[in-house]
Design goal:
The chain is α/β, with parallel strands linked by helices and 182 residues long. The chain is built from 6 helices and 5 strands, in the order E-E-E-H-E-H-E-H-H-H-H. The protein has one domain: Nucleotidyltransferase, domain 5 (2-Layer Sandwich). It starts with 8 loop residues before the first strand and ends in a 5-residue tail after the last helix. 24% of the residues are buried.
Length: 182
């Protein structure tokens, strides 16, 4: 089992869909001047796969037009290429696109990658959910971007240039088991 090896990389993975429609949050504005947020009636979207390295806080990101087993398998290959040779333990949820023959093929071909699934209906356990929350707050809440590709570029840049701290390894005792991560 990869989690028994001291050089194991611990990751969490999740997906999000981004629409041009701005989400809102409270902001300061001069007295008497109500801020305006543009509403886009379209349903065009960009999907993001995000995989958080629980030790470094770095995110491995991929864009996709849909979320399905084939796209997920491609993202797993991207993860394996980004972290060569080391064993990987990946935590993820039970989304339908996290199963199927393309996923099984990648796992069989790469025994250094193991999957551990979060319990059903427990998104609060996945630190990648907090990454999505942070990127939305920083980039997509109250935005004025008029084209989805530019908004997606800004989101991807934020995900790949920022680090996202998490206490997941401490909370579940993995730093106690693997003290070299401290």
């Amino acid at each position: 089992m990869v989690q028994e090896r001291p050089d194991t990389v611990f990751l969490t993975e999740d997906e999000m869909s981004m629409y041009l429609q701005a989400t809102t949050m409270a902001v300061w504005a001069p007295k008497g001047q109500t801020p305006e947020v543009r509403a886009d009636p379209g349903r065009q979207k960009v999907c993001f796969y995000g995989t958080l390295d629980l030790q470094t806080g770095r995110d491995i990101v991929a864009r996709a037009s849909v979320m399905n087993a084939e796209e997920t398998a491609q993202h797993l290959v991207q993860i394996l290429e980004a972290i060569p040779e080391r064993p990987i333990l990946l935590f993820w949820d039970r989304a339908p696109w996290h199963s199927g023959q393309p996923i099984r093929d990648v796992l069989v071909a790469n025994p250094r990658l193991e999957i551990m699934r979060f319990p059903v209906a427990a998104p609060e356990l996945n630190p990648q959910e907090q990454v999505w929350k942070a990127v939305r707050r920083a980039v997509s809440h109250n935005h004025t971007q008029q084209r989805l590709p530019e908004l997606a570029d800004r989101i991807e840049k934020h995900l790949t240039t920022e680090t996202f701290a998490t206490s997941f390894l401490d909370h579940y005792g993995l730093n106690a088991i693997y003290p070299m991560f401290n």
